[in-house]
Amino acid sequence: MEIFHISAECYPVAKVGGLADVVGALPKYLNQLGHQAKVIVPGYDTKFSRENEFENVHNGQLTLGYFQFSYSILKEKRNQLGFELYQIVIPDLFDRPNIYSYEDDTERFLAFQIAFLNWITETNQYPDILHCHDHHSGLIPFMVQNCYNYQHLKQIPTVLTIHNAQYQGWFEANKLHYLPDFHPSKLGFLEWNGAINPLASAIKCVWKITTVSPSYLEEISSNANGLENLLRYERRKSIGILNGIDNEVWNAKTDEMLAINYDLNDFIKGKTKNKKILCEQFNLDFKKPLFTFIGRLVGEKGADLLTEICSVALNQNVNKINILVLGSGDAGVESSLENLKSFYYGNYNAYIGYNEKLAHQIYAGADFLLMPSRVEPCGLNQMYALRYGTIPIVRRTGGLKDTVLDIGDGGFGICHNETSVFDVNYSINRAINLYKDSEKFDAVRKSTMQIDHSWDKVATEYINVYQSLKKLTK
Ligand code: ADP
What we know:
By secondary structure, the chain is α/β, with parallel strands linked by helices. The protein folds into two domains: 2-244 and 455-471, Glycogen Phosphorylase B (Rossmann fold, 3-Layer(aba) Sandwich); 267-448, Rossmann fold (3-Layer(aba) Sandwich), CATH 3.40.50.2000. Helix content is 36%, strand content 20%. It contains 17 helices and 17 strands. The chain has helices at 18-23, 26-32, 47-51, 105-122, 140-146, 198-205, 214-219, 228-233, 267-281, 306-316, 331-343, 356-365, 381-387, 398-403, 421-436, 438-449, 455-472; strands spanning 2-6, 36-42, 54-64, 67-76, 84-89, 129-133, 158-162, 191-192, 195-196, 208-211, 238-240, 290-297, 322-329, 348-352, 368-371, 391-395, 414-416. The longest helix is centred in the N-terminal third of the chain and has 18 residues, at 105-122. The structure holds adenosine-5'-diphosphate (ADP). Adenosine-5'-diphosphate binds next to helix 1, strand 12, strand 13 and helix 12.
């Protein structure tokens, strides 16, 4: 089957979070199983775009209301990612360094989707599946069903993966004329709660919905930023498929970003060396247990509580633990985490910003990874931590619930029920006790490294979805 993944992010081309990791891995594993999965992303001005060779395979025009844009389709020449990568270059809209958070994001992602549909129309391509990811490609299912320009694509099954239902891409009805023409009776497929809502539209129009973990599918029927009723209504066409991780990228034995590589046989030595280097870099004492946090500094991740969590833990365990935070996001959280440095000098440090290499080094060098998330559709951090022998401390929610079993229940992680300072600190104290029992600590770490979350088996679940949809077209 030929499957087109249309996404705003794809690792290592353009990454903000887990969406990129999934789109950068799943297609590779689909191809390894004999399919032709291709990825289409906007042509941002990123390091990857600048440093790799692309060939121009198509040029075209698109209309957004009264505005005309030229677009080009650039194909990455070497297929080095394990799949064909296409960038849609639209001058003025995407040749910028950041992926999101521009005032004209509505126009940018609409133009991206229209350019994609124009391209496959003008080049007579009929893939077997159009796989959309989050709201940035969420209007494609509506357009192929209802816009006059794309009626010939109507029979192609569409899939939507919801990586995060909090972000929906809504915009006011006064921008409706940006969309290619359709019959006014179809307007209801675009609207939700008085606005044009691309994620809601995709949920209504798409053939199949997948969420990135089974528990998240359950949770969004009661917590989905206003889409709960709609998701309950469309439950029958939804399925939860737990994300995998790319074991080729996340392999402590070969990871070029690590100072020292290690595997199951020498992980104690390997992790200690990585920890030592990390602690030296951040002025921490490597003999103490090292707690870390990696992620977007937003309420969903419980980051608003992080400063207090760190203070309480460091006050309760004076000079007995280290905490290292890597993240960026909410400006208030960023500055309070920065300020903490002067209070707990030598026991606490933070890197405010995005740093892929440092993230790898932390997964390898840390002892524990904190994930006090309020919402976690899947969560990849805990899976990377497990693979690198770092014990996750998680709130039981979404994908965290599906992937981390508490040591008290015969598992390998530390779990708590609430995103609260009290619950996280209770877990930190449990972790300190585990750290002191070095035999048990090492046994738990060893067991985490053997857990298999590879895409190999997850990719077949997606293939089953595609095949069941393909049957409906015969
Ligand atoms: P989300 O997509 O909600 O942000 P996920 O757990 O699904 O969360 O994925 C997060 C991904 O982003 C992981 O690969 C993680 O290592 C990475 N990441 C998040 N913040 C940073 C950061 N500041 N620096 C480097 N990597 C980060």
